[in-house]
Please model this.
Amino acid sequence: MDLHMASKLIYTATYEAENPIEVSLREAFHLLEPQLRPPFSLKVPTQPEYLNLNRAILFGILCELHFAKVHIKHLHGIVTDGYTFFTSLLTKVVNELYSKLVDSAKIQLIWITKELIHVAAVGFDALLVALLRQIVGGDFSEGNLWLCQELVSLFLFEWDCLLEEEPLVLASALYLFLRLLADHYRISGNSKIEALKLMEINLCVRVFREQFHLCLKIGRDLIRLLQDLVHIPEFRVIWKDLVLKPTEFRTNGFVDILQLYQKRTSSRYLLLRITPEMEKQLRFLLTHVKLGSQKRYQVWFMRKIFCVPERETLVIDIVRFLCCAHHPPNEIIQSDVIQRWAVIGWLLKSCKKNYVQANVKLALFYDWLFFDERVDNIMNIEPAILLMANSIPRYLDMTHTLLDFLFLLMDNYDVERKGLVIQCVSSAFGVLIRKGVIHSLDVLTHCDMLSPCLKESLGKLLPANPPPVSYCATLGFGISDGWGISNSIIGPTPFIWRGQRFTASCSGQAIALTNKITTTCSTENTGAPNSIAVTASAKLSQMTNIL
Amino acid sequence: MISLKDIVPAAQNNINTQFILLDKGKISLDGQHKTCLALVADETAGVHFQLWGDECDAFEPGDIVRLVNGIFSYNRNNLVLRAGKRGKMEKVGEFTLVFVETPNMSEIRWVPDPNNPKIYVQEAVISPYSRIFPPMQ
Model:
């Protein structure tokens, strides 16, 4: 047996049809096999010949380990399009075949990716993003951790190259590894993960400290991710700096964390945490399946996603994706196809863990908190209101839970900017009514079965004459917002989040939380007797116990 | 390729079609061979499918399947679609196929066409949906 025979590219189960991409690569390889060894032909290939040669070389690189270097030399020699076709083909292989690739092909894939970075191949950033998307959330299997390890190493090692050629891909890496760290920190006693965590922290901190302008491009979801990590010392420092010393980041124009809150996160980041397969299934569901016919699809989707309990955290990313990265056109909205709010309701109900449920709700409402009609998209806030309204009367507990959570968020998410948050949420409701997403809040405020307390709070949210938007969105300076709370944010800002009180000096002011959360006192950071801190887990469980 | 709503019982391996597997019943033994009844459907109709041997474990609900040279006939009193000796099943995808569960071609009473006894025609609907795999609520 020839030990140097090409291996296969993918595993194919019996009864599985051949994959068209694999077939086209394999056939090109076998057709052109004689031409793939030196001396290489100097004849200029026609366009179809050139494409086929690319396919053949790609197959050879992934399947002929021993000739990989020969193949890449060949590629360097023939390339006339800056590697555009080759890289896009490889990206397609990753997006559609990664999970089926044999192990040796995966190793080759990482190798060739590095080679393409070194020659600044056109489209290598899309290739990297495709690879990042193949890391499955909540999956701690060996294969998945291997990919994590390879990619974080790649980003660290190729830092200079990436920075020079496609710096924005570092922002994608930051988003992804911040998100993964939250999952990885829930696992202990696995030495592989310990080493991995260190590298991930290393990479993320480096982006924050050396390329903060890239962090700014991510926008508000960066904060959402960071807040899950403030128990990690390196991120606690970053968090403190973000809030108290924005100038530490030495980025012109960044003077306040509010600027991050006010930037809507692009869907390109939210897509990072959804595999292409999951994306395809979700978009299919929301485009073709009628409400009432979704049950079987839900069972199949759940079976894939929740095959392991740890995978539940994926729902957080799915909900964020649904709100921000899938905006159905009017024809679909007006049809009998199942809507996003219904899918989100089902997903939320499927979550068993409290912290996951809380994070899912946060993901659902996240664009409400600093909603600004001028820069935000009504489609990001639409699912939440429809879920609340349409759950009446059959699933009233859902409406209760969500409204409760919203008010809790408004009071506690950023106490110092509470007035602004209230204003933004109020504005969100206003826009939803004005644009006809719902006729009015009567469906909620006039619902007999809803608690009077909630209805009263809701009523207060809708002033007859909305106060003028009185903050400067671009520069992020806060001005008194008409709600009676001074929001001047120049200088150190005391506030509480997730159990830590951050302040340069103690305000000496007891901050009254809503009557639903009673506070426990502990002096963690400042040592000042009046400082109030609610331990993170207590707060979260309080929030979820009410819900 | 034929839509499921157009299949007619016949002693021929002439069914070329594509569908999604909705549900699988219990695997039982028919002599030495595993056998298993399933519900499959496409955009036009559903039908009971008889899985045989290795097929029983190779396919799961959610799989999109292409069938060539299949046969739709009475097999031990069940009117089922199956690959048969000359047919072949292949998984071509997952999830992304729209389907309906009614009519169910196996839950129809077929009789020979009075004008041409070699051909079957529909006489009556026994049940709009599968009685073995009712729709999920």
